[in-house]
Every structure is written in structure tokens, then in C-alpha cells.
């Protein structure tokens, strides 16, 4: 039940030493403020990590070949290793049960796309239909490359939102013809990439059409695969490592490459990179929590100290209350109420200031590793419960000591 006289008593007690109360409140508020800001930036780091993998699937394996750097089995170094369609088909067949999406690639970097009087430079990538999911390309209009396009070597193209803006100036591009090195391609789709404008500097055509248009014969520039994910992230990483080792061995065996020639065959694994970066972000989050909790504890200690002083100053008053019949629980509740009030008021002030700061500066931060620092509602709610627990803890020991004071001893106190 709300007791106005009790609250008046609390305000009167705290106002007797305004400076001490204010300094204690600042200690608690600053602790919560720092805690919220650290959690917000921890969230921003995690968002930044996720954004790093937004452009491509996190379980992607990329295979490229270069020049050999070591002599092996009588063959000299500096041999150019060229992937073929056969290599893609063999890997897809042998490891198909462990792979989710598969695509070969034949690219022409910096090609000029021409639509009527408009032109722009884009990377033209010949791909298989699965590449839409490997690249996380979101189709906003039309469709992506399909198997029929590849089998018939159709001259069709999927452009990005960036290409649509630069070349078509707001016009619907579906069904329009664009020219690449004098060869006309029909636009069948428009895609958006969550990786942003940099990822949208590419356009896609069927891989068979790319090999014909760019005199690629049956050559491939690269191959891309995604690992079939399981509920156990570490298990998926281990599977990815084993696949990489097997694919690397298969290619080196076929093209007679030294097993220790790492430059000749380059296989990148985004899943393993993701594991390392996510682990790092988790460590950063743990450190932020540790520092934040430490600042809150400092505030709790400050509140506990002030409550000990208040109990000491009110020893005679507590003795009189007990002599008049006050129960120990009523004494404990009286002290706890003051402690919780100081903690809650100061803590909520720090909480609001921290959330306000994140809301204000969050949208202004332009960093690829920190994006949208914020604290969600659940975390804020947990913080409120922490405040209540902290206030109770800070006041309990002084309150318990006050409840144990014998009236005759208290009345003798000077």
C-alpha cells in the first residue's frame, strides 16, 4: 500500500545530505549508462560481422586456380592450371550429398553494358542457377538464370538494381535488350544484393553463353559451392574443412600439382572465417558484459556505503522505533525502500541517457565493423531487473544490521 508519510520520510532523510545523495546517484547512473553503451556497441559489432557476410552465403566454398610455384614429378613450375566444366561436374557428382548449392563461373571483369544511349561498366558473370542462392541475390523483378538458359545457351541477362538505375533511368528493364561487346542480351530479371552497391556491380548470364560470348570454350574461372548446414555449427565447419581437403587433393592429383603448392589451388572457406569472427565477436560481447557489470557493482557498493552511513546516523531513531514496538521486518523494509529508490531512480536515469545516446549517434556511425548499435527491449528489461536486485542487495546488509540493533544499545548511541 502506498504510504505518503513513508515517502516523505525517505525524501527528508536523503535531503539531509544532498551532496552525498547526488554523488551516489551519479555513481549508479554512470554505471548503468556505461553498461548500456557497451551493450549497444557489442550489438553494433555483431551487426557489423553479419553485414560482412551479407553479400554471400556464410557456408560458401570458392575454388580458384593459378600458376604452380613448385616443380613436381618432372614438371616445371609456372604452369597455368585451368579449371574445366568437367571439374565442376566431377566435384558436384562426387560430393553432391554434402553440398547444398553449386555453380561454376566464367567472368569478364569491367565489361561495358550499353542500352540505347546509356552505358556503364559492370562485371559480367556466367553462372549456374544455384548462384542466386550462393550470392544471396534477391530477385525483385523477373527471374534468375535457369537450367533451360544454360542448355540452350540463351542470350539472357539478369541485371542489378544499380544497373537498372544507371542504364534504364526508372524504366522497366524486363524484355529490353542490352549490348555487351556488340552481342545483344535480353533482360529477364533484376536483383538486389544485401551486400550493397559494391555487390551490385555485377550482372549475370548463363555460364554456357558466357563461355561462347567470351571465347571461353569449356574453361572455368572459378567454382562456388555451399556446404549442407547442420544444427551443429562446429560440425558444419569440420565438414567444410574435410570437403576442402578432398577437393584440393582431387584437383592437384588430376593436374599433377605438388601437394604443398598452396598457390596453385586456392580454396576459400567463408564458414571457417565466419566461425572465427563470430567467436571474436562473442569474446568482445563477454568483455563488454564484464566491464559493464563491474561498473554496476561499483555503483552498488556506493549505495551500500551510503545506506551504512544512513543507518549509523539513525541508530537512535531505530532504537526508539523498536522500543515503541516496531518489528524487525518493518525496519528492514524501511531501509530497503530507501536503497531501492536511490538505485532505481539513478539507474533508470542512466538507462534512459544510454538508450538516448545510442538512438542519437547510432544512425550516424558509418563503419563496416560497427552497424546500428542498439539495445533491444529484452536487454533493457533485464537491466531493470538488475537494478531492482542491485538496490535490494545494496540495502539488505545495512537493513539487517539495523534490524538486529537492541533498543537499549541504540538509545545510548551518541
UniProtKB/TrEMBL annotation:
Protein keywords: Cell membrane, Membrane, Transmembrane, Transmembrane helix
Residue spans crossing the bilayer: 21-41, 286-311, 331-357, 377-397
Any single GO CC term annotated in Swiss-Prot or TrEMBL for this entry: plasma membrane
Domain ABC3 transporter permease C-terminal: start-end pairs: 290-407
Keyword Coiled coil tagged: no
Main location: membrane
GO molecular function: transmembrane transporter activity
Domain MacB-like periplasmic core: 21-235
Membrane topology annotation: Multi-pass membrane protein
Domain of life: Bacteria
Cellular localisation: Cell membrane
Listed InterPro entries: ABC3_permease_C (IPR003838), MacB_PCD (IPR025857), Macrolide_Exporter_MacB (IPR050250)
Similarity comment: Belongs to the ABC-4 integral membrane protein family.
Protein name: FtsX-like permease family protein
Amino acid at each position: 500500500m502506498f504510504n505518503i508519510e513513508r515517502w516523505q520520510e525517505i525524501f527528508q532523510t536523503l535531503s539531509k545530505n544532498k551532496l552525498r545523495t547526488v554523488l551516489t546517484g551519479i555513481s549508479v547512473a554512470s554505471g548503468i549508462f556505461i553498461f548500456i553503451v557497451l551493450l549497444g556497441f557489442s550489438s553494433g559489432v555483431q551487426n557489423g560481422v553479419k553485414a560482412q557476410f551479407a553479400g554471400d552465403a556464410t557456408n560458401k566454398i570458392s575454388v580458384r586456380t593459378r600458376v604452380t610455384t613448385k616443380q613436381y614429378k618432372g614438371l616445371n613450375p609456372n604452369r597455368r592450371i585451368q579449371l574445366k566444366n568437367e571439374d565442376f561436374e566431377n566435384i558436384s557428382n562426387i560430393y553432391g550429398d554434402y553440398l547444398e548449392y553449386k555453380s561454376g563461373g566464367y567472368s569478364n571483369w569491367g565489361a561495358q553494358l550499353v542500352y540505347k544511349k546509356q552505358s556503364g561498366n559492370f562485371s559480367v558473370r556466367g553462372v549456374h542457377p544455384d548462384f542466386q542462392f550462393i550470392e544471396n541475390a534477391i530477385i525483385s523483378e523477373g527471374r534468375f538464370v535457369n537450367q533451360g538458359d544454360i542448355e540452350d545457351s540463351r542470350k539472357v541477362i539478369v541485371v542489378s538494381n544499380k544497373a537498372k538505375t544507371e542504364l534504364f533511368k526508372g524504366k522497366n528493364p524486363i524484355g529490353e535488350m542490352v549490348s555487351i561487346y556488340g552481342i545483344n542480351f535480353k533482360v529477364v530479371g533484376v536483383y538486389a544484393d544485401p551486400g550493397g552497391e559494391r555487390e551490385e556491380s555485377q550482372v549475370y548470364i548463363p555460364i554456357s553463353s558466357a563461355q561462347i560470348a567470351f571465347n571461353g570454350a569449356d574453361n572455368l574461372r572459378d567454382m562456388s559451392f555451399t556446404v549442407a548446414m547442420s544444427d551443429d555449427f562446429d560440425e558444419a565447419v569440420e565438414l567444410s574443412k574435410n570437403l576442402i581437403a578432398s577437393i584440393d587433393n582431387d584437383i592437384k592429383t588430376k593436374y599433377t600439382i605438388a601437394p604443398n603448392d598452396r598457390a596453385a589451388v586456392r580454396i576459400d572457406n567463408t564458414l571457417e572465417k565466419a566461425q572465427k569472427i563470430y567467436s571474436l565477436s562473442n569474446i568482445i560481447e563477454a568483455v563488454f558484459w564484464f566491464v559493464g557489470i563491474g561498473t554496476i557493482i561499483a555503483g552498488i557498493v556506493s549505495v551500500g556505503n551510503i545506506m551504512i552511513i544512513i543507518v549509523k546516523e539513525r541508530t537512535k531513531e531505530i532504537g526508539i522505533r523498536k522500543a515503541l514496538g516496531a518489528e524487525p521486518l518493518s525496519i528492514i523494509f524501511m531501509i530497503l525502500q530507501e536503497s531501492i529508490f536511490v538505485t532505481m531512480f539513478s539507474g533508470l536515469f542512466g538507462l534512459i541517457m544510454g538508450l538516448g545516446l545510442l538512438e542519437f549517434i547510432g544512425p550516424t556511425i558509418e563503419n563496416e565493423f560497427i552497424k546500428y548499435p542498439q539495445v533491444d527491449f529484452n536487454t533493457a528489461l533485464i537491466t531493470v531487473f538488475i537494478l531492482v536486485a542491485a538496490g535490494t542487495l545494496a540495502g539488505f546488509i545495512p537493513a539487517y544490521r539495523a534490524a538486529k540493533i537492541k533498543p537499549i544499545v541504540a538509545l545510548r548511541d551518541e
